[in-house]
Structures are given as structure tokens and as C-alpha cells.
Amino acid sequence: MNLQQLEYIVALDTHRQFVLAAEKCFVTQPTLSMQVQKLEEELGVLLFDRKKKGVEPTVVGAKVVQQARQVLRETQQLRELVQVEKGELVGDLRLGIIPTLAPYLVPLFLLDLVERHPQLRVRVEELQSDVITQRLKDNQLDVGLLVTPLEDRALREVPVLEEPFLAYVAEGHPLYDQATVQPADLAAHEMWLLQQGHCFRHQVLNICTPAAHALPRTFSYESGSIETLKELVRHNHGYTLVPELSVLQELGNPMLKRFTAPEPVREVSLVVHHSFVRTPLLTTLREIILSKVPERLRASQAGQKIRWR
Q1: Rounded CA gap, 120 and 281, in Å?
Q2: What is the pTM of this model?
Q3: Distant-in-sequence, close-in-space partners of 251: CB < 8 Å, separation ≥ 6
Q4: Which of 307, 275, 305, 10 is nearest to 153 (CA)?
Q5: CA spacing 20 to 30 A to 198: which of 4, 85, 130, 234?
Q6: Who contacts 144 (Cβ-Cβ below 8 Å, separation ≥6)?
Q7: Which residues form the HTH lysR-type domain (predicted)?
Q8: Residue 215 in this model has a pLDDT that exceeds 60
Q9: Rounded CA gap, 254 and 30, in Å?
């Protein structure tokens, strides 16, 4: 048994195809198949059921893969501990970020990060919150940028921002003439919403009063993009709620309405597995992000945190 074989079975469990797993491991498919078979022979068990449409771990295979992920994580930690002691920011940074943050936050910090630390190989993926948390646990991501709290004991949260929600109101709507809004003003049947699966959608509905949820709808359109929601308001009617980072360039727009104090906010954190050892990298990433956003968005302000679970 060797680490390479463990990497192969983890890749096979992740991708459920020999060809794709081999591509991700930068080896040929016969090489990967042969090494997996050798490990099965050494252990005396079948780790994967080979099927026409793919492969699946057996019951014992799933347990072996889970332990293999832990072994590979700890091996990676050994290398990273040495890098930390040397004061180096090198290697891979696999970063997952939710879609309602990515378009507005990634352009602010990504280039600065790689320019300051050219030996750091950064890969960013837009993923929904539940996918990010699972990939952090499976050692498929190093850091997540998402909305917290998660209340997951396997993960550590480092708060970065408290981003206010603002109402984006069409001209002619009764709310348009108000200087500010409050949760009691919101009726879900008039609001453009993101699709199911987005934590931002759940937070928006949590801001509404319970009575507003029950109002009948005559039509609906649910989008996967905050920018689409804003366009719907601009060209149609009703309103939506948006995070402040998405409207930094249009804060003087009369369509934007702040909430009365305390403003509802979403807490944005850097999230890592509890075994994560590259603390200087986490600190650097947090500092760069904070240097690129208005100071009022820093965590520990006076907003009312809206939960999404």
C-alpha cells in the first residue's frame, strides 16, 4: 500500500469513472486500474463495484476511501506545516465561493493575491454552500468563502464581512417613495427571488414576516443570478433584495433602499476544516479582502445577522 494508490481510490470515488479519475491523477486509465486492483488484492476485499455506467464503492470500500482521505489530508498537513515554519505561501489554494459572492468579491482580491504570492497556485470554483462544506470535509477544497454560521463542528469559521441587505425597488412601486424600508413592508408575492438551493434566497425569506410568505402569487420567476433579478426590477415591477457588494457602484440610485436600523446583514466568513494548518494564508486572504471593501462592511458591526438554515 502506498500514498499513490490511496490518491487513486479517492479520485475514483470522487469521479466514479476510471477514465476521468485517471485524467485527474495525470496517469493512464490502465495504470490507475492496475494500481486499484493491486490494492484490492493486498487488502483482500473488493473496494469498487464496476458497472457499465460507472463505478461505486462497496460498503467496505466506502470505509477505506474515507480513511484514505484522512491519511492524505494528514500527509498534506505535514508538508504545509513545514511551509508555514519556513514562512512560505506556496502550493495550491483550492477556494470555493458561493455564486452570490463570486462576481462581486473575487475580482476585488484574486489578482492582488496572486501578484503578492506568485508561488501560490489559486483555483477558484463557484459552488453552493452545501457543496462547499462537503468538499472541505472531503479535502477537495482548502478554503470556502460563504455565509455563516454553519454550526458544523468539523469546520472552522473566520468572519470577514457583515454585508447589509438592501431593497431594490422599481419606480412606481409604493416602496419607491420611502426613504427606508423595514421587514414588515416586504411581501413575498411581489419579490423576485433566487432559485432553490441558494442560501441568499433563504435569508431573504427569513427577513420577510411570516404573514408575507402566505400571500398568493399570480406569477413567479426565479433566477440563479442577482443581476437578472435587478434587471427584472428595472424593466418590470416589484422589488428584490440585494447584497451591498452587488450595488457598490450604484449606491446613489433612488431604486436602492436601506433598512431601518438594525440593518439585516449576512455574515461572510472564510471557512476551513478544523485540521487546516496554513493560518498565515488564511490571515493574508482575509486582510486582502478587507483592504478591498468599504470599512463599514467589516465583521462585528451593528447589523442583525440573518440566518440561512
Answers
A1: 10
A2: 0.78
A3: none
A4: 275
A5: 234
A6: 95, 96, 97, 132, 133, 135, 136, 270, 271, 272
A7: 1-58
A8: no
A9: 63
Burial (CB count <10 Å: 0-12, 13-18, 19+), residue 220: exposed
Report residue 95 as a C-alpha cell.
Answer: 477556494
Give the strand pairing for 304-305 and 120-126. unpaired
Lowest mean pLDDT, pick from 31-35, 177-181, 194-198, 208-212:
208-212
> Which residue intervals of the chain are DSSP H helices?
3-15, 18-25, 29-43, 59-85, 102-116, 129-137, 199-207, 210-213, 226-235, 279-292
- Specify the DSSP class assigned to residue 162: E
* DSSP label at residue 244: G
**239-243 and 155-169 strand pairing:** antiparallel
Rounded distance between C-alpha atoms, residue 187 and residue 184, angstroms: 8
Q: Output the nine-digit C-alpha cell for 85.
A: 515554519
8 A C-beta contact, residue 170 and residue 236: yes
Q: Return the residue matching grid coordinates 413575498.
A: 188
Interatomic CA distance for residues 204 and 186, integer angstroms? 10
Helices H / strands E in the chain, number of each: 10, 13
Identity of the amino acid at 128: Q
Neighbours of 68 (CB within 10 A): 22
Task: Report the candidate in 267, 257, 262 with the shortest Cα–Cα distance to residue 308.
Answer: 267
pLDDT tens for residues 159-183? 999 999 999 999 988 899 999 999 8
Domains in the chain (CATH in brackets) are 3-82 (1.10.10.10), 93-161+269-296 (3.40.190.10), 163-265 (3.40.190.10)
- Which residue is it, cell 479535502? 139
Average pLDDT over residues 129-133: 94
Which amino acid is residue 218, in one-letter code? T
Q: Is 238 left (phi over 0), alpha (psi -120 to 50) or beta?
A: left
